[in-house]
Structures are given as structure tokens and as C-alpha cells.
Specification:
2 domains; disordered C terminus; Arc Repressor Mutant, subunit A; single chain; 7 strands
Length: 211
């Protein structure tokens, strides 16, 4: 009896349920607001998220002055649902804390913005260009983000790096067809790159056999 094991097939496609985040909530809210007052339940109905998750974001919007409760219609003795309207309507989704104050941009957001504006870059230049007075991007963070986007085919190499004591960093550029929009590709904790603009998984690490 042969003990030869067939080769493991290569992974060509991955199907994942990606929980919708605040960017998707905001898009739905803006669409609903065009037709009039809306409720948390109406937003939840168009997502795969829990009612409480959506509710936390809506309440933060209200605290931050982006939305307000306009009425609580009586439904025959049932607890009335709060109806909201937007007070501010920016294109980009507000990122707000529980107290209503706006969050600082993330390192990934800053690096993606820098990649889109720089003609070419190495990890050191990316870290420098993406850093601000309030959020600093380290060289290891820049190297890690570059490596993830290279694996997902977002970047082309302009000049390979060289190792050794007098080594040089590789120089990269963002591929024109992968400049997909203002939202940064997210490097998820499950080790894949999720493109928020296209709503697709761009790359994932090979699966390892559990022994």
C-alpha cells in the first residue's frame, strides 16, 4: 500500500466574511440620510454587523456633532426608536472616540497616503514621509507594510536592495493600476491584505498543515 500523499493544491481563491466597519456604516448612513431620517436598525439591516456595534458608531457620531436625534415617534406603546439626521456630511467616514473627539490617523493610513504621493520610495523615505508631529511611523513598520503590499502585488521594485554592511534598501513604486483609492489596504491580523476600495482579498499567506 502506497504511503505517497498527493500534493497539496495551490490556493487560487479565498472567500472570507469581512465584517463591515465604520467606512461601510458611514456610506450606508449617507445614502439613508438622502431620503430622510434613519435609525440604527435601518443601518444594521444593510450590514453583517451586530446592532450594538452599529449603535456605538452612531452614538459617537452624535457626540461628535456629525448627527443628531430629530424625533422619537411613538409606536403604540413600544419603546420609541431614535431617528437621526446628519449635521455634517463629509465624504470620508469620521473616526470618532466614545466622547466624540476625532481619532488620529493610523500609520497604515499615513503610509498609504505617502505611497500615493511619492514617485518612488524606500522604507526609510516612506517612514519619514508618513510621520507627523502626532503620529510617528517607524522604519520596521514601513518595512513590514511594504512587504505585505509587495506580496499583494501593489508595488513594483525600481531597484532591488543589497545586503551586507554597506547594503541599500530596495526602492519601490506604487503600481498605477493598484492606486485603488484613498482608503489604505488593511493588513489584517489573519495575515491577508484586504483592499477596502475594491472589497476583495488581494493576497494571503500559504496555509500550513497542522500537525
Amino acid at each position: 500500500m502506497s504511503t505517497h500523499r498527493p500534493p497539496t493544491p495551490r490556493l487560487h481563491e479565498i472567500r472570507l466574511e469581512i465584517p463591515r466597519g465604520f467606512a461601510d456604516f458611514w456610506k450606508i448612513i449617507r445614502e439613508l440620510d438622502m431620503s430622510g431620517p434613519w435609525t440604527i436598525a435601518m443601518v444594521t439591516g444593510q450590514t453583517r454587523s451586530h446592532h450594538e456595534v452599529v449603535g456605538r458608531y452612531v452614538r459617537r457620531l452624535a457626540k461628535g456633532g456629525f448627527a443628531e436625534v430629530v424625533n422619537r415617534p411613538d409606536r403604540g406603546g413600544l419603546p420609541p426608536a431614535a431617528h437621526y439626521r446628519l449635521l455634517k456630511n463629509p465624504v470620508d467616514a469620521p473616526r470618532v472616540r466614545p466622547d466624540g473627539s476625532e481619532c488620529l490617523p493610523t500609520a497604515q493610513e499615513q503610509m498609504w497616503r505617502a505611497m500615493r504621493s511619492l514617485r518612488q520610495f524606500d522604507a526609510r523615505e516612506l517612514a519619514f514621509s508618513a510621520s507627523t508631529d502626532v503620529v510617528s511611523v517607524s522604519l520596521p513598520a514601513a518595512k513590514s507594510y511594504i512587504a505585505r503590499l509587495v506580496a499583494a502585488d501593489y508595488l513594483d521594485v525600481v531597484r532591488p536592495g543589497k545586503g551586507g554592511v554597506k547594503g541599500t534598501l530596495a526602492i519601490w513604486r506604487l503600481r498605477p493600476n493598484m492606486n485603488t483609492g484613498p482608503l489604505p489596504p488593511l493588513v489584517m491580523h489573519t495575515r491577508f491584505v484586504w483592499d477596502q476600495n475594491r472589497s476583495v482579498v488581494m493576497a494571503a499567506e500559504p496555509a500550513k498543515e497542522v500537525v
